[in-house]
Amino acid sequence: MPDVSTGMFVPPPSAVPVPTALSAPSTYPTEMAARTLSIPLFLSPSAEGGLYQDSSSLLGYNDTSSPPVTTTFGVVAREQGTWDGNTDGLLGLAYSNLYCSPTCHNTILDDLYARYAKDGYQDVFGLCLSEEKGILSLGALDSQLVAGEIYWIDVQDPAFYSISLTKFRFGSVEITSSRYQAILDSGTTLLLLPTALYTIFYTVVTQQYPSLPGVSSRPSFFDGQALNIDPTSSWPDLHLHFGDIDVRVPPSVYFTKIKQGFFSYWYLGVYPVEASVASQFDASRYILLGDAFLRGVTVFHDRENDRVGLGVPSSFCFVSNYAVINDFDPRTNENFNGTDIEPEADLDFWLRLRFFFLEYFMETFFAVILALCLCACCCQECGWAAGST
């Protein structure tokens, strides 16, 4: 614990709409022996704790004859760094095959569905997040959380909430048109790119948009520091394409604002996948869409039909900065008339060639090297076997 795509969202009871409000009958949850929790995070904060079990039930259902659901969750006992004091632990919203440490447990979603399916409860949950508040909806599609249409995308990997990303743009500049698997992960703060793709993103921003605030300064946004420079009115939008669905993410979403006293600071929410995370899956083909993306959309996870729904957050979600899908804003009922910021300079031929090699050939190159090594080992073993007969 924690695993990638294990939700880290613990909403206040007042934010969970009836009839799917959670209640916790137990006052003292039971600690599971020898089950520890360690959470290292970007920018140095960390937390430690353990796994606990407690009972919970859903308010609003008539059947009270069955006992409450007993579920396993992570509790944060010790915090270091810039943790939000309201962060108490890991609720665990992933698929159950990731809920192992090493013993596998049912998630709260599995337990609630098993308990309440006969009462009409669906294996569906929705999330809308803002910088300060959020809403978790359980058991049905809550139309209050979305303005306008829900755009459905099939889940590609049964282990994660992953959907197929077909194009990624920064303003008017295409970063990639290759197909990647994008994992929707509410437990990740940032939008994390594979190393090769992040190198392209970094080069495009620094070489083609050098005059953007916080790009050429020292320190810059790429130094992993929060700066007292407001980039939200001058940086281009990010475009993430999922087939024919274009999600336009403004800088007010993919930058995170931090307030300290009377001062405000911003840090860029796009970074490369770190080695500690990359070891859990093939990081060269996966993008992690954390809160730097999720703050701009409402997400529905329809686990019964293996699909994910994206929509524009409604005003009910406490979200003032949000993404626009297919250049239509249902909250104003208007088409988006903005233009993407054009680059100040073009990339030279050698940089483009380098990007082509990075994205298309590195994975193939290492696969060929591995195949040659295996072939050499097999041939050597065959030679030894032939020599011993």
Automatic annotation (TrEMBL):
The Peptidase A1 domain covers 1-311
Q: Which Pfam families does the UniProt record give?
A: Asp
The record's GO molecular-function terms, alphabetically, read: aspartic-type endopeptidase activity
Record key words, sorted: Aspartyl protease, Hydrolase, Protease, Signal, Zymogen
Q: Does the keyword Signal apply?
A: yes
Please give the biological process terms from Gene Ontology that the record holds.
proteolysis
InterPro entries for the chain:
Aspartic_peptidase_A1 (IPR001461), Aspartic_peptidase_AS (IPR001969), Pepsin-like_dom (IPR034164), PEPTIDASE_A1 (IPR033121), Peptidase_aspartic_dom_sf (IPR021109)
Q: Which family does it belong to?
A: Belongs to the peptidase A1 family.
What is this protein called in UniProt?
A: Peptidase A1 domain-containing protein
Q: Which organism is it from?
A: Blastocystis hominis
> Taxonomy-wise, where does this protein's organism fall, top ranks first?
Eukaryota, Sar, Stramenopiles, Bigyra, Opalozoa
